[in-house]
């Protein structure tokens, strides 16, 4: 009844939902939108911060790689030129130009030269001993040079390993920090999801309770209405006409009027059907009469046709007999001629 009265009131029907309810709904939507915008801004700021950290780490890596490359290039330019290599003399294009006659007394050849010329006499014991001492000293110098070179290479490798370990530690610390930040962000996201899920459940429960209340109210309204109780066949409104929403069934007078109308229609149909049957019988008798007349006319036509044919046959016989007699007279006259 309250719903019907609200529908009958133009002001309430056209006005719709109260503005306070709409304002509360708009405020709730605005708060949800602001929360979503704040969450998006937080995630965007976190992403920018992570991007900056990663860019800084990558820049440090690139700078260290560039420093190593520059150090390698500087070392190569300073110590690895082709003129400084020990085997450069084997492929020196200007070696023949600078070559001079060997001198056995020249100390630059060293004890390993094994220079011996035909004009050189047999060396004395003192010279042989001195040559052996020089050879031993040269070999010791080469061994010491090799050991120094190996020590320098080991020191360089140790320094490279220490720098690589330092870079690995820095990278591990950065990765651990990034993983921890991602874990914290994921935990915060999980907590926010749990909170949103709880809010959604509460809203769903509230909506369910509201729907149940409206449903129960509707059930009570319908069960207690006069339309369900069938207290009136057709309730008459203020205008004197039956109300469409309260119309249940016909009254006894209207139902009897319908029965009377149906009976009159049935009687009219029976009378019409009987009249049609009489008209069909009359048409059938007329058809039989017409068929009999047409049959008699057809028989008379056939009889007259046969009679005409018989007269025609008799006339033909008569004409044939006359022609036969005429032919016989002509033959008699023909044979009777005597020249």
From TrEMBL:
Positions with biased composition (Basic and acidic residues): 86-101
Keyword Cytoplasm listed: yes
Residue runs in coiled coils: 187-216, 264-323
Keyword list, A-Z: Cell projection, Cilium, Coiled coil, Cytoplasm, Cytoskeleton, Flagellum
Highest taxon, organism lineage: Eukaryota
Location of the region described as Disordered in the Swiss-Prot/TrEMBL record: 86-131
Family membership noted in the UniProt record: Belongs to the RIB43A family.
Quaternary structure, from the entry: Microtubule inner protein component of sperm flagellar doublet microtubules.
Protein name per its UniProtKB record: RIB43A-like with coiled-coils protein 2
Organism: Symbiodinium natans
């Amino acid at each position: 009844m309250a719903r019907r009265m609200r529908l009958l009131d133009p002001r309430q029907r056209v006005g719709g939902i109260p503005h306070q309810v709409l304002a509360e709904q708009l405020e709730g939507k605005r708060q949800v939108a602001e929360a979503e915008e704040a969450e998006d801004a937080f995630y965007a700021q976190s992403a920018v911060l992570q991007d900056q950290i990663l860019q800084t780490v990558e820049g440090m890596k690139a700078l260290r790689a560039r420093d190593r490359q520059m150090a390698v290039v500087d070392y190569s330019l300073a110590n690895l030129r082709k003129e400084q290599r020990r085997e450069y003399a084997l492929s020196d294009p200007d070696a023949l130009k600078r070559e001079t006659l060997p001198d056995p007394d020249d100390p630059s050849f060293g004890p390993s030269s094994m220079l011996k010329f035909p004009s050189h006499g047999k060396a004395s014991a003192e010279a042989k001993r001195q040559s052996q001492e020089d050879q031993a000293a040269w070999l010791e110098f080469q061994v010491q040079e090799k050991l120094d070179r190996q020590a320098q290479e080991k020191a360089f490798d140790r320094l490279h390993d220490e720098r690589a370990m330092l870079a690995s530690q820095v990278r591990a610390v950065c990765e651990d920090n990034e993983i921890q930040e991602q874990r914290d962000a994921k935990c915060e996201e999980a907590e926010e999801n749990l909170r949103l899920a709880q809010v959604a459940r509460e809203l769903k429960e509230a909506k369910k309770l509201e729907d149940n209340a409206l449903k129960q109210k509707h059930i009570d309204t319908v069960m207690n209405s006069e339309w369900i109780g069938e207290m009136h066949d057709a309730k008459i409104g203020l205008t004197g006409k039956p109300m469409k929403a309260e119309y249940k069934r016909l009254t006894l007078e209207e139902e009897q009027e319908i029965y009377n109308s149906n009976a009159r229609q049935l009687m009219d149909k029976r009378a019409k059907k009987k009249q049609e049957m009489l008209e069909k019988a009359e048409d059938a008798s007329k058809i039989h009469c017409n068929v009999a007349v047409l049959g008699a006319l057809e028989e008379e036509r056939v009889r007259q046709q046969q009679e005409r044919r018989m007269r025609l046959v008799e006339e033909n016989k008569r004409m044939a007999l006359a022609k036969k007699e005429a032919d016989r007279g002509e033959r008699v006259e023909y044979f009777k001629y005597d020249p």
